Amino acid sequence: MKRKEIITAFILATFSVVVLSSFILSVDEPVIKGYHVGSEVADINLLNVDNKRISFSDFSDAKGFIVIFTCNKCPYAVASEDRINALDAEFKSKGYPVIAINPNNPEVQPDDTFVLMQQKAKEKGFTFPYLFDESHKVYAQFGAAKTPHVYLLQKEGGKRIVKYIGAIDDNVRKASSVKERFLANAINELLAGKEVSLKETKAIGCSVKV
Q1: In this structure, are strands 53-54 and 130-132 parallel, antiparallel, or unpaired?
Q2: How many angstroms separate the CA atoms of 206 and 73, rounded?
Q3: Which of 92, 136, 169, 171 has the most CB atoms within 10 Å of its CB?
Q4: CA-CA distances (angstroms) from residue 80 to 5, 90, 182, 198?
């Protein structure tokens, strides 16, 4: 093979690899990026464990919402259940109720059927709505990737604005070892009329199963 033909073949092979790599990257890239701090959040309409549908607009007196994507069996979610109940008890009366949402597909994760959600809510005495994202559209809109994954919203001028995203605190595995309450600190700053100082942390938990 002549030198010119070798060079041409090499260029074509390199071009093919680049094109293929670009295609693979584009396929793997998430279609929906999700909300970020400062985003306006759309209303929801999801089925609660009491068989009633729930929307943000149902809470006319709320100042905002503690939205937590969670599930029935993930050990990180289970370790957070008492903390989530405590957050609702601490902040619901102050205008920030908890709205828990299960994003998992029960066909992929059989422990997350609606019936088992109802059992979980009863067993743990959930004081907050525990909603089923049956279409898996809401978790995608938010960009939630873990259970648990927290989004703190505040009402501003008739809009729901994201103020904090991430973890409940700095030790998802063991409540007794928590040193910094990321979410509670953010809510207290909003209640004091201040800007949230720590706007985002890393959510640690099980991946959403869809």
Answers
A1: unpaired
A2: 10
A3: 169
A4: 64, 15, 14, 20
Name which of 154, 149, 152, 180 is nearest 166 in CA terms.
Answer: 149
Distance CA 154, CA 121 (A): 26
Tokens, residue 24: 């693979």
Report d(CA 131, CA 110) in Å as an integer: 17
Instruction: Give the three-state DSSP class for 165.
Output: strand
Strand duo 46-48 + 53-54: pairing: antiparallel
Quick check: bond before 148 cis, omega within 30? yes
pLDDT by residue for the chain (210 residues), tens digit each? 555 554 444 444 444 433 334 333 333 333 447 999 999 999 999 999 999 999 999 999 999 999 999 999 999 999 999 999 999 999 999 999 999 999 999 999 999 999 999 999 999 999 999 999 999 999 999 999 999 999 999 999 999 999 999 999 999 999 999 999 999 999 999 999 999 999 999 999 999 999
Secondary structure string (H, E, C) spanning 82-96? HHHHHHHHHHHHHCC
Cα separation, 133 vs 117, whole angstroms: 12
Q: Which of 157, 154, 179, 155 is nearest to 167 (CA)?
A: 179
Residue identified by tokens 């969670």 is 70
